[in-house]
Amino acid sequence: MAAAADHATPTYDRMKEVKEFDESKIGVKGLAESGITSIPRMFIHSPEALSDLKKPNSQTCTKKTIPLIDLSHFNSPTERHQLVEQMRDATSTWGFFQVINHGIPKSVLDETINAIKAFHDQPHEVKSKLYNREKERQGVMYSSNNDLYRAKAASWHDSLTIWMAPETRRAKEEDIPEVCRKQIVAWESHSTKVAEALLELLSEGLGVEAERFKDLGFLEGKLVVGHCYPYCPQPDLTVGITSHTDSGLTVLLQNQVGGLQVKHGDEWVDVEPIPGALTVNIGDFIQIISNDNYVSVEHRVLAKTSKEPRISVVAFFNVGTQADSDYFGPLPELLSPDKPALYRKFTVPEFNESFFSKGLDSKSFIQKVRL
Ligand SMILES: O=C(O)CCC(=O)C(=O)O
Ligand SMILES: [Fe+2]
């Protein structure tokens, strides 16, 4: 395969190509719209990663589906117990599930997707003024591949990233692009309410106080990311987003295009778009403090040749930085002589440093702190 062999050509100056792409501020959407029929080399993934894409069940989709959880019984004194159990089963085996009847009106979901699409649909002259990756971990960022300079290969997506909390990192409202400002602020408040409910259920599923996760500060670090995965002329040579795990609690809204896949055992399972549903997954921080009762699972997005771009809007929740000097580790309530801690303690800055300084394709923090 010529393209994959080129990948290893010693004369190829990858960093130069990456820099030129970044400085052009064109994004992958701009590349797609320029009419290219082959993708630049910097986007071509390694033969090992590409062979994983071609496993028989990965593109054609297995019959398996991730669990679907109905949150309508959240306030029911009699049915809540069952809901807690469903969530515990889903989070301990899949680490991923979809939720319906979560309380966010369908109109809000549609407006959120449309606003992020409208942002990415703006002309190059408008978007290029906003293109930046310098203000990492605060304010507003718009760029292609947040880990562009750290990852081994780039992926086929552009992202608008907006820090919402803690206050010290929060984007000024006037800095959020006007085309999606109102909708992002609304998505933040709606998704926070869902996250709060999920954190209660997750706490109860471990048999600890319902407020335990919230009290640890899990709603105090918050960012919203609006991804766009445009048409890709060679989806067999790259991915939409590289396989990775998330940090804390993730609440994701997707349009109807699909492409998100979750690793389950050695299979990749499609997360089917369900109108009105949200996709939820837990990340490394929660796997660690749950002492492996809950699992943080690898997921990725496939690149596609559909003309309609995939749009996803993600709310990431994790402990805020006001907890800088606190040590986190498996919750003491979960430990006993039979169930010793599987992880050492760590601080939030240590977690963030490790999480944000690596490419999505690097080894996870989990392996670093596992005892
Ligand atoms: O767009 C998607 O569906 C996945 C995005 C994702 O996994 C992430 O931003 O961490
Ligand atoms: Fe993710």
> Which descriptor suits the 3D outline?
globular
Radius of gyration: 20 Å
Whole-number tally of structural domains: 1
Within CATH, the superfamily carries the name: B-lactam Antibiotic, Isopenicillin N Synthase, Chain
* Strand order, largest beta sheet: 1-2-10-7-12-5-4-3
Number of strands: 14
- Give the low-confidence spans: none
The end-to-end distance, rounded to whole angstroms, is 42 Å
Small molecules bound = 2-oxoglutaric acid, fe (ii) ion
What's the helix-strand series? HHHHHEHEHHEEHHEEEEEEHEEEEHH
CATH topology: Jelly Rolls
Task: Bin the strand percentage.
Answer: 15-25%
Helical segment count? 13
Keywords: Iron, Metal-binding, Oxidoreductase
Pfam family, one: 2OG-FeII_Oxy
InterPro entries: DIOX_N, IPNS-like_FE2OG_OXY, IPNS-like_sf, Oxoglu/Fe-dep_dioxygenase_dom
Family: Belongs to the iron/ascorbate-dependent oxidoreductase family.
Overview of this structure, please?
- The chain is an alpha+beta fold.
- It has one domain (18-369): Jelly Rolls.
- Helix content is 33%, strand content 19%.
- It is built from 13 helices and 14 strands.
- The chain has helices at residues 2-6, 14-24, 27-33, 47-53, 56-60, 80-93, 106-121, 124-130, 181-205, 212-215, 284-289, 348-357, 365-369, and strands at 68-70, 96-100, 140-144, 158-165, 221-229, 241-244, 249-254, 260-264, 267-270, 278-282, 299-301, 310-318, 327-328, 346-347.
- The strands form three sheets. The protein has an eight-stranded mixed β-sheet.
- Strand 8 (260-264) and strand 9 form a beta hairpin.
- Helix 6 packs across helix 9.
- The longest helix is centred in the middle third of the chain and has 25 residues, at 181-205.
- The model has no long low-confidence stretch (mean pLDDT 93).
- Bound molecules: 2-oxoglutaric acid and fe (ii) ion.
- The site of 2-oxoglutaric acid has 11 residues, from strand 5, strand 7, strand 11 and strand 12.
